[in-house]
Specification:
It contains 12 helices and 13 strands. With 393 residues, the protein is α+β, with helices and mostly antiparallel strands. Strand 9 and strand 10 form a beta hairpin. Helix 1 runs antiparallel to helix 12, helix 2 packs parallel to helix 7 and helix 6 packs across helix 7. It starts with 44 loop residues before the first helix and ends with a helix.
């Protein structure tokens, strides 16, 4: 039986802004791919589930995985193509864009920095950027790292293109921070307000205290310790290339390839990374270990702050740091979830700490229209993967 998963529309995570990459790119004909096997072996289990959901919703490609506390490779499968219309088949080793599911990684990096003593959860924007003393609005002077990561910063959701200046990612983060603290608040004190800008400012703060770029810090303190060696930043595939999954958007009921597509580099800490599903699974397994009291790359005290309910969204649903904390009967209660998109790719995870497993879904496509085809497809996939984990079918 399909498990109902979608959060109420009032509290759905709306993800990264569509201010990067061309939205009107011309489709490019795929290059020649390998000849299909005339007698392919029958696909069963999770493979059959992913195949059937992708076909039912006509997505370019779809990935599904089940991760457990003790086995990050419990089950995973991929179906479809790197580019809509054929060509090279998508593989499990391909790199998939995580969108705002990267926020949980950023929060984990912050927890490690807190554990190291480089920063505290109560470090304020004013503390980190004393040069802004003459321009920062009073409403933001006391905003802390915890506020930024739990969507209580009151900052504008996304920066306009004109605020994103600088030749390097660090310069862009600093420029966005300078712009952000001069803007009027977007919400009331203590109110939940989803903001990518807040995660950009947090990324800039972490750069300063760790003495290196956000990307290098993420590599050193989070990715390498977890054995993640295939992560990258920005588009997965170059222009006109099918070497990796290509982003797609539904236009007039047809999938349009978006060449070399992603948000600007300043979105890195808010959701600008890609990696294989196996690598994402390693991070999710660490979250399961954290919830089980046995984390490996961060202390329990610091790490647990990221999965603690901090900001009321609605009803009994809260935002932690990179996680929506809610409850589901199939999870025996406490559940962590998030989704992410750069408007050309899509990702979702649901984590059931009480049961020691999680499900993941990814696609190289997105549809923000009335049909919400991709998010609906991934919801269906999540339900079927949960059912498979419970029943074996």
């Amino acid at each position: 039986m399909l498990v109902a998963l979608r959060l109420a529309a009032l509290i759905t995570i709306v993800l990264t802004g569509a201010c990067g990459g061309p939205s009107d790119a011309d489709p490019v004909a795929p290059g020649p791919g390998p000849e299909p096997d005339p007698n392919p072996p029958a696909r069963t289990g999770v493979e059959a589930i992913v195949d059937s959901v992708r076909a039912a919703f006509d997505l370019p490609a779809l990935v599904g995985a089940i991760v457990t506390l003790n086995d990050a490779e419990f089950a995973r499968a991929v179906s479809g193509y790197r580019r809509a219309g054929g060509g090279p088949a998508a593989t499990l080793d391909d790199r998939w864009h995580l969108g705002s599911n990267l926020k949980a990684f950023t929060a984990m990096l912050a927890a490690i920095a807190v554990e190291r003593g480089d920063i505290t959860w109560e470090t304020t924007i004013a503390d980190a950027f004393p040069e802004l003393a003459g321009t920062i609005r009073a409403e933001y002077a006391g905003i802390t790292l915890r506020n930024l990561l739990s969507h209580q910063s009151r900052l504008q959701r996304d920066p306009p293109p004109g605020a994103i200046v600088g030749a390097t990612r660090t310069e862009q983060r600093n420029a966005v921070t300078t712009w952000a603290v001069t803007q009027p608040p977007a919400s009331d004190v203590g109110q939940y307000r989803y903001t990518n800008t807040g995660y950009m400012v947090a990324g800039a703060m972490l750069e300063r205290v760790l003495g290196t770029t956000f990307e290098d810090a993420m590599q050193t303190y989070v990715l390498e310790p977890l054995g993640i060696d295939d992560a990258g930043w920005g588009p997965q595939a170059d222009h006109a290339s099918s070497s990796q999954p290509v982003a797609h958007r539904l236009v007039n009921n047809q999938w349009q390839a978006l060449e070399a597509f992603d948000n600007p580099p300043v979105y890195a800490s808010a959701g600008g990374a890609h990696m294989s599903v196996g690598s994402w699974s390693k991070f999710i397994q660490e979250v399961l270990r954290l919830e089980n009291g046995t984390p490996t790359i961060v202390s329990l005290a610091a790490g647990s702050e990221t999965t603690r309910p901090l900001t009321l969204i609605a009803g009994s649903d809260f935002y932690g740091m990179g996680w929506v904390i809610t409850s589901r009967s199939w999870a025996n209660g406490r559940t962590l979830t998030h989704d992410g998109t750069n408007t050309g790719n899509y990702s979702v995870t649901w984590v059931a700490p009480e049961r020691g497993f999680a499900v993941l879904g990814l696609s190289n496509s997105y549809d923000a229209g009335a049909t919400a085809r991709v998010s609906t497809a991934v919801d269906v996939l999540m339900g079927r993967l949960i059912s498979y984990y419970e029943t074996g079918r």
